Structure formats: structure tokens, C-alpha cells
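Support request from a user on the community tier.

User writes: "When I paste my C-alpha cells into the form, the page sometimes reloads and wipes my input. The last time it worked, I copied everything first. Here is what I submitted, just in case something in the input itself triggers the reload:"
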């Protein structure tokens, strides 16, 4: 039985070419094929390090068709390196789909360490790094974006987002509307000569961007809410709900009908009997 190949997930520099690891360079030199998000972009990187290997495209628009082709090559014993335009493949690109496909086919995959913009920005922000959540790119449409941000309103962990320069102001306006005027850190041009980290509240950043056009891809790090803020927000969340909707909201969270009535009564400062009347037709 012939030996199968291995998929290597190879992170590439996010700006400074000196950040590539010796292990990544050796892997790129040794594989049979390099699958790249943008072959032209990757070719410049390979030329810089004098690496001559066959290139093929693997991106969001061809991942289904090309994924099957790459699996076939791995089954035939070829070793393949997967790279994105910058940073770790699998973060905000279809690399994770390829990894899943490899695992489903019982093939071997190895992930090499390397640069990741989200972690660099998190540490540069000065916010809490003990617990954080990576959200990547929010939906492009404002309504969908605000809907997702509503789900993050009570998030106590530090949050990390990605955004493009042409959409950053719209994203920040929605961020302010939903989450309030939070402290944020915006990192751009990471590891490059003109690396910049802006640490301000959202409104101050928006004022800054009215005077100057934002340039470069952004990593936005947002401070989470503290416990006191969570309590204040939770107290006001039910104000637009009817008593019945308020009961159902707690039941959807896993509380029993009896517990939900008790909590609604306490929060609204009304008698349990009054709440109970609104719950009679609610099925358990």
C-alpha cells in the first residue's frame, strides 16, 4: 500500500518578511505543491526566499472543487503546504475547510507556528488577555452587523474583530450604537514600518477618522463589560418586553415556569399573581 501525503498549514508574515520561521521555509522547500489563497501574492514571497515550487490556488470561491483535487493528491502521496495571503491559514479564510476535509478523509495534517494578527493586536491593546473571544469580520450589512453585536452586548471577555479600511467607520458607528462608547484599540500595519495602535474610546476614534481617512486593514480590540455594567444592562433589557415575553425569555434560557415567574416578579417589582395570570396559557 502506497504511503499518503501530509498537509502542512504554513503561516506567512503579516508584514515583515523576517517573521517567517526557518521551519516554514524548510517546509515550503520540501513539499510537492503549495496551495495559496492568491498565487501571485505567494509567488512574490517565494521569489524573495528563492523557493521554486509548483503553485495552485485554493480560496473561498474554488474551495469545494479544489479541495477534492488536493485530497486526491494527498492520497497519491504528495505533500502539500497551505498558505494564506498573510498570517495563519484557517483564520478568516477557507483553510479551516481544508483541514476538516483532510481529517474526514483520515489523512495527516500538521500546523506550523507563526504570526497571527489577532494575538499581536490583543497584547498591544493593553486590555485583559486572560479571557478573550475572536469574532473576525462582522456581517457587511448594517442590520445583520447590529444583530450580531446585540448578542455581544453582555460579553465580559475582550473581543477581537477584523475590518477593512472602507468599512471601518460604519462598523465603529454600529459598535457605538449597540455596545456604547467603549474603550477600543485599533491596530494597523502590524509588524510593518508604519505600525500604529490607536487607543481611544469609539467616539474619539470616529472623530479622528472624520479628519483623516483610515488606511490599511484593521484589527479592532474591544474592552469587555465589567460585572456592574452587566447588571445595569440586564436590568434594562426587559423594558421593551411584555410580561409574557419576559417569562418566555427566561424559560428559553432553561428556567422552569415557576422560576421564571419568580424572577420576572422580582425584576418588575410586581406581585407574582399578576405575573402568573400572564403565564396561564404558556405550555411547559
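"...and here is what came back when it finally went through:"
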Amino acid at each position: 500500500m502506497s504511503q499518503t501525503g501530509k498537509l502542512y498549514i504554513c503561516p506567512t508574515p503579516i508584514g515583515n518578511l523576517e517573521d517567517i520561521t526557518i521551519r516554514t521555509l524548510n517546509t515550503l522547500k520540501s513539499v510537492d505543491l503549495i496551495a495559496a489563497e492568491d498565487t501571485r501574492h505567494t509567488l512574490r514571497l517565494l521569489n524573495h526566499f528563492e523557493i521554486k515550487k509548483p503553485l495552485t490556488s485554493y480560496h473561498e470561491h474554488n474551495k469545494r472543487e479544489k479541495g477534492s483535487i488536493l485530497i486526491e493528491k494527498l492520497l497519491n502521496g504528495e505533500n502539500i503546504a497551505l498558505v494564506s495571503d498573510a498570517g495563519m491559514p484557517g483564520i478568516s479564510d477557507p483553510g479551516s475547510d481544508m483541514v476538516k476535509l483532510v481529517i474526514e478523509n483520515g489523512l495527516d495534517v500538521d500546523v506550523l507556528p507563526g504570526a497571527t494578527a489577532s494575538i499581536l493586536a490583543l497584547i498591544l491593546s493593553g486590555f485583559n488577555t486572560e479571557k478573550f473571544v475572536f469574532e473576525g469580520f462582522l456581517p457587511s450589512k448594517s442590520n445583520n452587523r447590529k444583530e450580531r453585536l446585540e448578542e455581544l452586548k453582555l460579553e465580559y471577555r475582550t473581543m477581537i474583530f477584523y475590518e477593512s479600511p472602507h468599512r471601518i467607520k460604519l462598523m465603529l458607528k454600529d459598535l457605538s450604537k449597540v455596545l456604547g462608547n467603549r474603550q477600543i484599540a485599533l491596530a494597523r500595519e502590524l509588524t510593518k514600518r508604519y505600525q500604529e495602535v490607536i487607543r481611544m474610546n469609539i467616539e474619539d476614534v470616529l472623530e479622528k477618522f472624520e479628519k483623516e481617512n483610515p488606511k490599511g486593514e484593521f484589527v479592532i480590540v474591544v474592552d469587555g463589560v465589567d460585572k456592574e455594567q452587566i447588571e445595569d444592562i440586564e436590568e434594562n433589557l426587559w423594558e421593551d418586553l411584555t410580561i409574557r415575553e419576559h417569562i418566555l425569555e427566561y424559560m428559553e434560557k432553561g428556567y422552569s415556569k415557576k422560576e421564571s415567574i419568580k424572577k420576572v416578579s422580582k425584576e418588575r417589582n410586581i406581585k407574582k399573581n399578576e405575573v402568573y395570570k400572564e403565564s396561564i396559557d404558556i405550555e411547559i
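Agent notes: The reload is a front-end session timeout and is unrelated to the input. The mean pLDDT is 92. Residues 146 and 177 are 8 Å apart (CA to CA). Escalated to web team.
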